[in-house]
Specification:
Blueprint lengths: L5 E4 L7 E10 L4 E7 L1 H5 L1 H12 L9 E4 L4 H13 L9 E3 L2 E2 L5 E2 L2 H4 L6 E9 L3 H12 L3 E10 L3 E2 L2 E8 L8 E2 L5 H4 L6 E4 L2 E4 L1
Parallel strand pairs: 2-13, 4-5, 4-8, 8-9, 9-11
Antiparallel strand pairs: 1-2, 2-3, 3-12, 6-7, 10-11, 13-14
Helix pairs in contact: 2-3
Length: 209
C-alpha cells in the first residue's frame, strides 16, 4: 500500500501535509476509496504547530472555553489552544483540553473530575476525520448529557462542510481529494464489483487484509 501513497500539501501552508492511498477500505460505518494518512499532523511537533496556526485563523470571532480532542488530536489541540489564547479568543482565560472516555457500549462519557470542564462551556470539537458525521453526532449526544455548548468543529480532513448549522473548519477537504467517495457497506460499488478490501481503517491507522 505504501508505494501508492501520494502527498497532499495544504494550499495555505505547504508545511502541512497528509498522505492519501487509493484503494478499497472499510471503516466501522462505511467504505471509502482513499485512506487518508494524518499521522504526521497527529505526532510531529513541528507539523502540528503549523497545522494549529492554520486552523486557529478560522476562529477569529469564536470564544472557546474547552477543546474536546477526539481520534488522537491531543497534540494538535494543545497547539490550537495556544494559538487561540495568543489571539485573545478566550479573553485571557485558560482553555481546557480533554478527551472523552468510551464506555462498554461505545458511548462517550466524562468522569466526575473532568465534567466541570464541559458543563456550560463553549466547546470546540476537534476530530481527525469527518466522512459521514456519525462520530460528530456521537460527540454531540455526549455534550448534551453534560450541558456543553458546541460552538465550533475543527478537523484535519472532512468530506462534509457542516454538522447541523455549525461549519466544519478542516485543514483538508474532499476538494483536495476530488475523487474521494464513501458508501454504506451494503451499497458499496467496489464490493459489488468484487474488489477486495485492502485494509480496515480507523483513527489509529490501518490494518491490511
Amino acid at each position: 500500500m505504501e508505494d501508492r501513497m501520494q502527498t497532499i500539501q495544504s494550499i495555505k501552508n505547504k508545511k502541512v501535509q497528509i498522505g492519501v492511498i487509493p484503494g478499497h477500505y472499510a471503516t466501522n460505518h462505511s467504505h471509502v476509496n482513499f485512506y487518508v494518512d494524518m499521522t504526521s499532523i497527529k505526532t510531529s511537533m513541528k507539523m502540528a504547530k503549523e497545522a494549529a496556526a492554520e486552523l486557529a485563523s478560522t476562529y477569529a470571532n469564536t470564544h472557546i472555553d474547552t477543546i474536546i480532542c477526539l481520534e488522537g488530536t491531543e497534540i494538535l489541540g494543545g497547539f490550537l489552544a495556544d494559538q487561540l489564547s495568543q489571539a485573545g479568543i478566550n479573553k485571557g482565560e485558560d482553555i481546557n483540553l480533554i478527551t472523552p472516555e468510551l464506555n462498554a457500549v461505545n458511548q462517550m462519557i466524562f468522569r466526575d473530575n473532568t465534567q466541570k470542564k464541559v458543563w456550560g462551556k463553549q466547546i470546540l470539537l476537534l476530530i481527525s476525520s469527518a466522512s459521514t458525521g456519525k462520530s460528530i453526532g456521537r460527540a454531540v449526544d455526549c455534550l448534551q448529557y453534560y450541558s456543553g455548548k458546541l460552538t465550533a468543529i475543527g478537523a484535519i480532513f472532512s468530506a462534509i462542510e457542516k454538522y447541523g448549522d455549525i461549519s466544519i473548519h478542516a485543514l483538508f477537504t474532499d476538494k483536495d481529494l476530488p475523487h474521494y467517495e464513501n458508501y454504506a457497506a451494503n451499497s458499496c460499488p467496489m464490493c459489488k464489483s468484487g474488489k477486495k478490501i485492502d485494509a480496515l481503517i480507523n483513527s489509529f491507522g490501518y490494518s491490511k487484509l
